[in-house]
Amino acid sequence: MLNVLDGAVLVISAVEGVQAQTRVLLRTLQRLELPTLIFVNKIDRGGADAGRVLADIAQRLTPAIVAMGSTHGLGTRTSDFAPYGATDRAFKDRLADLLAQRDDALLADYVSDDASVSYDAYATL
Fold first, then answer.
1. Cα distances (angstroms) measured from residue 36 to each of 1, 42, 65, 103
2. Strand boundaries in the chain, DSSP class E
3. What is the CA 67 to chain-centroid distance, rounded?
4. Could you tell me whether strands 69-72 and 8-13 are parallel, antiparallel, or unpaired per DSSP bridges?
5. Which of 16, 59, 115, 119 has the fewest CB atoms within 10 Å around its CB?
6. What is the largest CA-CA distance in the chain?
7. What are 41's strand-pairing partners?
8. What is the DSSP string of 38-61?
9. Using CA atoms, how far apart are residues 71 and 22, in angstroms rounded to an integer?
């Protein structure tokens, strides 16, 4: 079989959240073993609720999620997304916890000295 995709982006509305077809699509992507990023859009629409959507994703799709940033001004024209970075310790710890479950070498490095694991090392996994 010839694979033409290296990965996929699954888009979920911040208003409607996880839908039945979202679950079907993610199961298909998992069956195909395609790495998948979940992107939450429509944060500027009335009724947008990032916390509810993230909880819905964790409950209905996969608990293996890490928010890559924070949102501000949900449901307004001035809504914004601010990505977390290498200096955000809480984000780095959440990311390390998730990735270490899937990579034994990263787990060993993190347990021996979590400060020695560079932020760039996470990006290569």
1. 20, 19, 11, 17
2. 8-13, 36-41, 69-72, 80-83
3. 5
4. unpaired
5. 115
6. 46
7. 13
8. EEEE-TTSTT--HHHHHHHHHHHT
9. 22
CA pair distance 36, 6, nearest whole angstrom: 9
Of 24 and 102, the structure prediction assigns the larger pLDDT to: 24
Average pLDDT, the chain: 85
Whole-angstrom Cα distance, residue 43 to residue 41?
6
Contact 45, 75 (CB under 8 A): yes
Indicate the SS3 state at residue 15: coil
Q: Is residue 30 a contact partner of residue 1, using CB atoms and an 8 Å limit?
A: no
> Cβ(38)–Cβ(61) under 8 Å?
yes
Query: Is pLDDT of 3 > 80?
Result: no
- pLDDT value of position 121: 60
User: What pTM did the predictor assign?
Assistant: 0.76
- Band (pLDDT 50/70/90 cuts) for residue 113 is low
Token pair of 43, please?
A: 């944060």
How far, in whole angstroms, is CA 75 from its chain's centroid? 21
